[in-house]
Amino acid sequence: MIRSMTGYGRKEDSKGSIRATVEIRAVNHRFSEIVVRLPKVWNMLEDSIRKLVAQYVKRGRVDVTVSVEGKSSSATVMDIDWDVAEQLVSISREMTQRFALETPLTVKDLLHFPGVIHTKESEDDNVEELAEWLQDLVRGAAMDLVSMKETEGKLLHADLASRLTAVNTWTREISQLAPLCKEDYKGRLEQRVSEWAGLTPFELDAARVAQEVAFFADKSDISEELTRLDSHCQQFANQLGKEEAIGRKLDFLLQEMNREANTIASKANHLRIQHLAVEIKTELEKMREQIQNVE
Known about the structure:
- The protein has 295 residues and is α+β, with helices and mostly antiparallel strands.
- The chain has helices at residues 46-54, 82-99, 107-112, 125-197, 206-219, 223-240, 247-267, 271-291; strands spanning 7-15, 18-27, 32-37, 60-69, 76-80, 117-121.
- The chain is built from eight helices and six strands; from the N terminus they run E-E-E-H-E-E-H-H-E-H-H-H-H-H.
- The strands form two sheets. Strands 1-2-4-3 form a four-stranded mixed sheet.
- Strand 3 (32-37), helix 1 (46-54) and strand 4 form a beta-alpha-beta unit.
């Protein structure tokens, strides 16, 4: 099933005093790029969240934003480095005596001195539980994103299939007209020669006319281009039914189809064929614009 590269997914939930919201936005991009934004305290989950989202998105730029409000039950622990504190007190007393200072070191001074107080989050089983809960929210938002991408993908599939049908129809018409090019050219050539014959003293050289017609037939032969164009159309149709990321493959096939249409338009000296080739090229360009949004 075709997926669009653009989409939006969102999940939010509460657990105890914490409320978390996960938003995922996806836009067009040539390759796969996943950017994760987390509260600083949860930065350790960045890599695991990126890998989790990568399971759902194969191509495009994806922005994952996780916001968390409230605090967990894990407490903040404060440790005192008594060795540093004792050295500070000892130095303070010595300096007071040596310089006759009247402002002794206070407890407040000690608490503000770097290295005396160390803070850290206490290890709590709740942290691991919350991390798993957040990743479940990310998974839910990713599934919500995929749902939106698939809905838009159905519309893209219908549009591309319809345009491909038109290209196939015009290709078949060109295939039917191609054999007539030689006869049309022969008729026009003979008509011109007969018109010249009345104005010139020489007779029509049938062998020379046949040689000219054969040369034109070889020069304007588009059978190979039609075969390749038909093959590319079949491959394009097959790709539309696949479940994998097909955007880049479809883009390549469209380039090849456009190349064949250009060659047909330039080689075929036939007004209707040239008109149909232009119609094909116009439709392929519309398809190319749509392909830019296919994952």
